Fold this sequence. Notes:
- The chain is α/β, with parallel strands linked by helices.
- It has 2 domains: 6-17 and 86-208, Rossmann fold; 19-80, DNA polymerase, domain 1.
- The protein is 42% helix and 13% strand.
- The protein has helices at 19-32, 40-44, 51-60, 68-80, 92-101, 114-123, 146-155, 168-177, 203-208, and strands at residues 6-9, 16-17, 87-88, 106-109, 132-134, 161-165, 181-184, 195-197.
- The protein has a 6-stranded parallel beta sheet with strand order 5-4-1-6-7-8, sandwiched between helices. A two-stranded antiparallel sheet has the order 2-3.
- Strand 4, helix 6 (114-123) and strand 5 form a beta-alpha-beta unit.
- The longest helix has 14 residues, at 19-32.
Amino acid sequence: MSGKTSVIFDLDGTLIDSAPDLRAALNRVLAARGLPALNGEALRSMIGDGAKALVDRGFAAHGRQAGPADLADFLADYEENATVETVVYPGMMETLSQLAGSGHKLAVCTNKPAAAAGIILEKLALKPFFPVLVGGDSTPFRKPDPRHLAGVVEALGGGAAVMVGDHENDMEAARGLGLPSIFAAWGYGQAQGTYTAHSAAELPGVIAGL
């Protein structure tokens, strides 16, 4: 695979550890409704399918059904507090610099709403690496639907690409589009990709060997 292959990254659990801020925002919404807080382990298993799914699961854990106002309050809170405790994973900045310097085009494909994702990329100094960002509300589709990922490839100008993510949604979207995938084993999920990387530092070597 050539150095100009596009490398498409998931966001939560792949580029960034966002679980603390997602948990805090969701728990503030729950508290406002008189519902108990969720702990970190419960929350981590709910991440990966976008904001609506996260809020729905948070309320369902208490036997309640979330409504549009609950989602709106979560999104407003989270966008204001998306980088309080969220951090870039160790070695990721160096890896992105290496990949970009080697001629790889980089993009983000996330089920997170594009506005929140863009705020995070900017505040964590990741935005310069990613000229293309496709969020969960950027197209009519979301991962694991391969058409979501196809929108990213199209925005990058087509050509060869690889998907890097920590969730089965990422791996399934790549399979559906006939792309290789790299499972980010440091993230939140369990999945089977074409390849596995155990740290950000391993990614350039894995990509070079595709």
